[in-house]
Inverse folding.
């Protein structure tokens, strides 16, 4: 039987993960699941962990869910380690959002100054986890969801020297779930090819005859009431149609922050001044969810969980694990080593691409070179990520400032430095490297 360890097990998303494993039990015979959390998450772990055990009991499979605050005890002889933790919990996220907004800059979980600080808090922790894995489960796969997922995954490869890692995101899953219907097709009729970075990828699509249908999907996106699978956390500001037609690719939901920067910033500031930032909104959803999880009769994933932006993440996580375990060679969009799939970026960096997943991990599918506009964005963003990772590891202030000044969501100048300084103070407790 398979041993799964989930770090950040107290997450409100955990029932979705359990559902994904239960649905795949026949191909992925799990023996035990260890949900790991920390003192600050103890209560959440207890509630959602008890609920997880109820889900397994109701499924009729004999799987034991262990709850622990002792990561090393859990990691011993693990086969797969999934990571879904949030250093500093939602309160830290809310600071990542509110502080940049207070300077008139985007405050967002994975983009701009907030995303950079989430990386600063998270990378040292993931590197500690990797050190534990080297000792306690040297053959295990690390399946990372912790945001910013692309940067965290690349840090594991580059600074942790750990190759058995795959980074995941639900955004490609959502697109493939909803888009086919916009052109009257089903997913099985279509071939998808993604490339770029996490929360910064594009994709193209072909039909059963091998004819490209990307432009048809772009056309369909501008009809009324079309659901193209944009995640719940992103304001649905339309892209400029002429830009997409020229591009010949479909950008991911997060590209709105770059292609409609003015409008997305204005919308974010409006919410910051009224109903509160996304983190503040999500805090309420989380409280509701944990009230539901306390019900001793609830033994399935409640509908309310779909209000979270990460809905369907388990389709990526559980399918990746099942594909490695059963050598399925299925197509999954993952963050993995580039190896030439995106020739505009170095071969040894991490990219988010279509890949075939089997026993040996991810085999990235070649996407080919990008046109000047996309190539320019991609190279800026990847090098910005490199600065962030280096600053996260070394605690070098100058490097952090370089990342800030390079990031397209942060105007250069004195206020870039001021917002950096304020975030360093606000998150001091979680930034021992600075
Ligand atoms: P959350 O605030 O509920 O945090 C999850 C758990 O992590 C908490 O119970 C917390 O106590 C625990 N934790 C914090 N520090 C820890 C540590 N050092 N070791 C172990 N556990 C620790 O967060 P959430 O909203 O459920 O999101 C979890 C993570 O997954 C976040 O990083 C989020 O950005 C990410 N996420 C990613 C995707 C994706 O597409 N990749 C989708 C959804 C969520
Ligand atoms: C999805 C992303 C995740 C992100 C999440 C935010 O868009 O793929 O990486 O963290 O949603 O959702 P939330 O409900 O926490 O705002
Ligand atoms: Mn994501």
């Amino acid at each position: 039987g398979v041993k799964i360890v989930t770090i950040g097990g107290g997450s409100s998303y955990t029932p979705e993960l359990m559902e994904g494993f239960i649905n795949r039990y026949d191909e992925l015979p799990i023996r035990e699941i260890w949900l790991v959390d920390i003192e600050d998450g103890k209560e959440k772990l207890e509630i959602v962990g008890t609920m997880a055990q109820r889900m397994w009991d109701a499924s009729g499979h004999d799987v034991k869910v262990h709850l622990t605050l002792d990561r090393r005890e859990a990691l011993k002889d693990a086969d797969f380690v999934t990571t879904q933790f949030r250093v500093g919990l939602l309160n830290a996220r809310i600071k990542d959002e509110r502080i940049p907004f207070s300077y008139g800059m985007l405050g967002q979980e994975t983009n701009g100054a907030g995303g950079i600080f989430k990386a600063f808090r998270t990378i040292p922790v993931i590197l500690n986890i990797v050190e534990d894995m080297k000792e306690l489960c040297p053959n295990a796969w690390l399946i990372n969801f912790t945001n910013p997922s692309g940067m965290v995954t690349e840090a594991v490869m580059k600074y942790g020297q750990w190759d058995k890692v795959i980074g995941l995101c639900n955004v490609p899953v959502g697109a493939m779930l909803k888009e086919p219907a916009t052109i009257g097709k089903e997913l099985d009729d279509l071939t998808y090819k993604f490339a770029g970075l996490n929360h910064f990828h594009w994709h193209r699509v072909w039909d059963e005859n091998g004819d490209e249908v990307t432009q048809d999907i772009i056309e369909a996106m501008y009809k009324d009431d079309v659901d193209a699978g944009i995640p719940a956390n992103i304001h649905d500001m339309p892209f400029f149609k002429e830009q997409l037609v020229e591009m010949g690719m479909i950008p991911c939901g997060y590209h709105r922050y770059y292609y409609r920067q003015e409008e997305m910033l204005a919308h974010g500031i409006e919410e910051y001044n009224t109903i509160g930032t996304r983190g503040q909104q999500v805090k309420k959803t989380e409280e509701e969810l944990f009230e539901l999880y306390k019900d001793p009769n609830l033994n399935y994933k409640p509908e309310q969980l779909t209000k979270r932006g990460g809905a369907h993440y388990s389709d990526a996580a559980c399918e990746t694990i099942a594909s490695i375990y059963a050598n399925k060679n299925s197509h999954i969009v993952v963050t993995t080593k580039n190896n030439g799939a995106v020739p505009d970026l170095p071969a040894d960096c991490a990219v988010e691409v279509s890949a075939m997943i089997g026993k040996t991990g991810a085999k990235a599918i070649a996407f080919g070179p990008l046109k000047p506009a996309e190539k320019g964005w991609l190279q800026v963003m990847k090098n910005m990520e490199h600065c962030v990772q280096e600053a996260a590891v070394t605690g070098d202030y100058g490097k952090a400032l370089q990342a800030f000044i390079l990031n397209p969501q942060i105007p250069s100048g004195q206020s870039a430095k001021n917002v950096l300084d304020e975030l360093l103070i606000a998150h001091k407790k979680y930034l021992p490297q600075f």
Remarks:
- The longest helix spans residues 112-136.
- The mean pLDDT is 97.
- Residues 31 and 69 are 20 Å apart (CA to CA).
